[in-house]
Amino acid sequence: MKRAPHKPKPEPSTNSSLVLLHMDLCGPMRTQSLGGKKYVLVIVDDYSRYTWVKFLRSKDETPKVLITFLKTIQVNLQKPVKLLRTDNDTKFKNKTVEEYLESVGITHQYSATRTPE
Asked: Considering only CA atoms, which of 94, 49, 45 is closest in space to residue 70?
């Protein structure tokens, strides 16, 4: 069976920046960076497609880096993040992240497994 290609969207699904952020953690990479970091946290704004990249030494740093990033970006851009979409992995499904997101009113969605679209 052949896969049909995904058609490009003529307009974004959101109407302003920071409404929806997509996140994924990649790694461990075979080669470390000069600072000894093996993991890459990629954050993409759905509206502008602006991308932030954070380098981590281990997966354990993910909650701390994520919460610091969300606080910083909301203060710098003077806009609240409304929705966060991540894959269905344990690095984003932990008590620390969920408690923070609930306290500031950010909705957390998980994508379905094995759907890179």
From this structure: 45
Spatial distance between the Cα atoms of 20 and 36, rounded to a whole number of angstroms: 31
Pairing of β 51-56 and β 107-110 = unpaired
- Beta sheet of 107-110, edge-to-edge order: 51-56, 39-45, 20-26, 83-86, 107-110
Over the Cα atoms of the chain, what is R_g? 15
**The tokens of 61 are what?**
């740093």
- Residue with the two structure tokens 């929806």: 20
**pLDDT tens digits along 50-102:** 999 999 999 999 999 999 999 999 999 999 999 999 988 777 888 999 999 99
Tell me which of 51 and 27 has the higher pLDDT: 51
> Cβ(26)–Cβ(43) under 8 Å?
no
User: Rounded distance, CA 33 to CA 115, Å?
Assistant: 29
pTM (2 d.p.): 0.83
Phi-psi region of 114 (alpha: psi -120 to 50; beta: other; left: phi over 0): left
**How far is Cα 91 from Cα 102, in angstroms, rounded to an integer?**
17
